[in-house]
Amino acid sequence: MNERRFIADLLTPLATTAAARGFADDAAVWAPPLGRELVMTHDTLVAGTHFLPGDPPADIAWKLLAVNLCDLAAMGARPAGVLLSLALSPAEDDAWRSAFTTGLARALATFDVALWGGDTVAGVAAAVLGITAIGHVAAGKALPRHGARPGDGVFVSGTIGDAGLGLAIARGAASADKFLLARYRRPQPRLALGAALAGVATAAMDISDGLLIDADRLAAASGVGLALDLAALPLSPALVARAGDDDAARLAAATAGDDYELLFTMPPGTDPAPLAGKIAVTRIGVVTTGAGLALTGRAGPLALPARLGWEH
């Protein structure tokens, strides 16, 4: 299947909004809603680094879209459209491309976001897949990383550490578990929660490289410290059944990465639960003066691990 047929047969049917112009022009044209500011992000998935050769193409498409939408959620933005970039190797044959676009269509529909355009190339040694996601937020309400203040509560959404075990399952290093594998392959952007936090939370970001390393980044951006209670870390029953519930298991969960949950801070006395709907939110610490992280476990203070999370 050459590029022209790939675009015409598989991608153009996904261009269902006026902004995409049926892929007939050189670029998309979109008018943002009145009084909203644009929020833009771009993430890349590389074969062998961000996904494995045996990962289903539909799941790869889902994750490619989801990790970008997680960035919009962390800014409190609502997604509008995406631009897709595919650099494909010989391994991504016609069957792979068909399954990928089927998965992409399902993900676009699930998150109510439109495909506006992009580019495709072939002949690379390993696939490099990218999406630029465009969203919008009320003027002046975009969530920053730099707004945390001493006394604020520190919260996370969902559960932490599941995707790390899911990756081990995908690699064949652990026995199968459908829930944990899905947490790795199909992250869930917390778009509704992010939008509800806009203008309310003092700082926010998504957890992509591990809770501890991303918390350290939020603390640095805000010029504060974070005192985190590892015993309060929300863990799923599936993770506890596999890894246990001691401080070592919780440290492993906090450094695993690929959670794509929201980490955010709220003014003292503010309860985010009414904003979260059905998404669980858990207070895991407090913002302090100073810098960096301070950890407490079940038996008292804990030393920071040498590795806080994933770094390229």
User: How do the strands of the widest beta sheet line up side by side?
Assistant: 6-8-5-9-7-10-11
CATH topology of the largest domain, which one? Phosphoribosyl-aminoimidazole Synthetase, Chain A, domain 2
User: Which structural class fits the helix and strand makeup?
Assistant: alpha+beta
Query: Which spans of ≥5 residues are poorly predicted at pLDDT below 50?
Result: none
* DSSP strand tally: 11
Mean pLDDT: 95
**CATH H-tier superfamily of the largest domain:** PurM-like C-terminal domain
Named CATH architecture of the largest domain: Alpha-Beta Complex
How do the SSEs run, as a string of H and E? HEHEHEEEHHHEHEHHEHEEE
Number of domains: 2
* CATH class annotation of the largest domain: Alpha Beta
How far is the N terminus from the C terminus?
Answer: 34 Å
Q: Helicity range of the residues?
A: 25-40%
So what's the overall shape?
globular
Number of helices, where a helix is a run of at least 4 consecutive DSSP H or I residues: 10
Main β-sheet description: 7 strands, mixed
Radius of gyration: 20 Å
Beta percentage is: 25-35%
Protein topology:
Elements: H1 3-11, E1 36-46, H2 57-74, E2 78-88, H3 94-110, E3 114-122, E4 128-138, E5 153-157, H4 162-170, H5 178-185, H6 191-197, E6 203-207, H7 211-222, E7 225-229, H8 237-243, H9 247-254, E8 261-266, H10 273-276, E9 281-288, E10 292-297, E11 300-302
Parallel strand pairs: 2-3, 7-10
Antiparallel strand pairs: 1-4, 2-4, 5-8, 5-9, 6-8, 7-9, 10-11
Helix pairs in contact: 2-3, 2-6, 4-5
